[in-house]
Design a protein that fits this description.
This protein has 224 residues and is of the alpha/beta class. It is 44% helix and 16% strand. Bound molecules: 3-methylbut-3-enyl trihydrogen diphosphate (2 copies) and magnesium ion. The site of magnesium ion (MG) has 2 residues, from loops.
């Protein structure tokens, strides 16, 4: 049995779900948030210690303004309403990505991180305004600026994800097989699962099936 410590998820398919079911992409994002809550709960139940959720990529800025506004508003309202409950459930929140967002949201994100920083049940890494290429370049620049040697260890310890182990599993919903600029360094040895279902339709049973498959895989890490 492989230990399962960290699950990373590309939550894709909200827009298509919304168009199909309610003729509105925004409705899909709203429905996707319900799945987020379900999957957090189920991760805790499965004793997973790290859950990384891709919420907004550096490329998602290319979407229409109204969709971007809606997404950030959804996040803001969610955090405001749920932060107390997340905290009392022992959830630690960490933002992975560039926090250079509007001041109100940045303050809220920093507050959520600080408030939950001592929690130990599960760590939720919210990949927000995240891009793997930007992360890699930022890390190289930081190492050079601090006159550090470019070694694998220094590199790993200076990524946005420092102190977070690499994901054991990557799940991408939405019937597309690509990484879309997500954790390219960290996923080097992760087991990849591509799920046909759109994110709002993804449920605990689908999640359990993936976990079961993962537990039976022989992970080699180059060895035999
Ligand atoms: C993923 O769903 C959520 C975000 C990118 C915020 P999409 O919005 O990409 O949904 P599709 O892929 O268009 O269906
Ligand atoms: C990846 O989904 C980003 C998030 C889930 C936040 P996208 O829908 O943005 O990816 P592409 O554009 O289809 O590759
Ligand atoms: Mg998409």
């Amino acid at each position: 049995m492989n230990p399962l410590n960290h699950v990373a998820i590309i939550m894709d398919g909200n827009g298509r779900w919304g168009m199909r079911n309610k003729n509105s992409r925004k409705a899909g994002h709203k429905a996707g948030l319900k799945t987020v809550e379900k999957i957090i709960k189920h991760s805790i139940k499965n004793k997973i210690k790290f859950l990384t959720l891709y919420a907004f990529s550096t490329e998602n800025w290319k979407r229409p303004d109204s969709e971007i506004k809606y997404l950030f508003n959804l996040l803001e309202v969610f955090l405001r309403e749920k932060i107390q409950k997340l905290h009392s459930n022992g959830i630690k929140i960490k933002i992975v990505g560039n926090k250079n967002l509007n001041k109100k949201l940045r303050t809220l994100l920093t507050y959520a991180e600080k408030k939950t920083s001592k929690n130990e049940k599960i760590q939720i890494n919210l990949a927000l305004n995240y891009g793997s290429k930007k992360e890699i370049l930022d890390t190289v620049k930081k190492l050079i600026k601090n006159k550090k040697k470019i070694t694998e260890e220094n590199f790993t310890n200076n990524l946005y994800t420092k102190n977070i182990p690499n994901p054991d599993i990557l799940i991408r919903t939405g019937n597309t097989k690509r990484l879309s600029n997500f954790l390219m360094w960290q996923l080097a040895y992760s087991e990849l699962f591509f799920e046909k279902k759109l994110w709002p339709d993804f449920n605990e049973i689908d999640y359990d099936k993936i976990i079961k498959k993962y537990s039976q895989i022989k992970r080699n890490f180059g060895k035999i």
